[in-house]
Write a structure and sequence with these properties.
Elements: H1 4-11, E1 18-25, E2 37-43, E3 47-52, E4 57-62, E5 66-74, E6 77-84, E7 87-92, H2 95-99, H3 101-111, E8 116-117, H4 119-126, H5 130-135
Parallel strand pairs: 5-8
Antiparallel strand pairs: 1-2, 1-7, 2-3, 3-4, 5-6, 6-7
Length: about 140
């Protein structure tokens, strides 16, 4: 798989606005043929531009269409379960991406349109005692 850095260089994108999304459910908005499908996701002022070159998919999910969002932890991953224009969109990302400038920007932009629930799970997953929490 192409790295985030090479993808940003190739497409002339700011790495602080690029998020690696591992889609668990696309709700018909984004294909998820293998259960967990990776998307390079550019964060714009108006939405997420999700691209998977192997699938030939490039689609924008406008922030204005985010109706709900909630963090949850499953399979030792932090998941963000969203309702986007009436469709479930569920994704995770490696821990370092949630803590990155892009991850923080993503949450800020979604939070401008809907309240994000489950911040306690986010804090546990991104906090210093992460390994201790995961071992429980």
């Amino acid at each position: 798989m192409e790295t985030r850095k090479s993808y940003c260089e190739k497409n002339h994108l700011d790495p602080d606005r690029m998020f690696l999304m591992v889609l668990g459910e696309g709700g018909g908005l984004l294909p998820c043929p293998v259960g967990m499908t990776g998307y390079f996701t550019a964060i714009t002022d108006t939405g997420l531009v999700c691209e998977n070159e192997k699938l030939g998919v490039k689609k924008e999910l406008p922030f204005a269409q985010f109706e709900s969002a909630e963090f949850g932890i499953g399979s030792a991953q932090l998941w963000l379960q969203c309702q986007v224009d009436g469709h479930p969109v569920v994704f995770c990302s490696p821990r370092r991406y949630w803590k990155s400038p892009a991850g923080k920007l993503l949450l800020e932009k979604i939070g401008e349109h809907t309240e994000i629930q489950g911040w306690k799970e986010y804090q546990k997953y991104t906090g210093k005692l992460f390994l201790l929490y995961m071992l429980k």
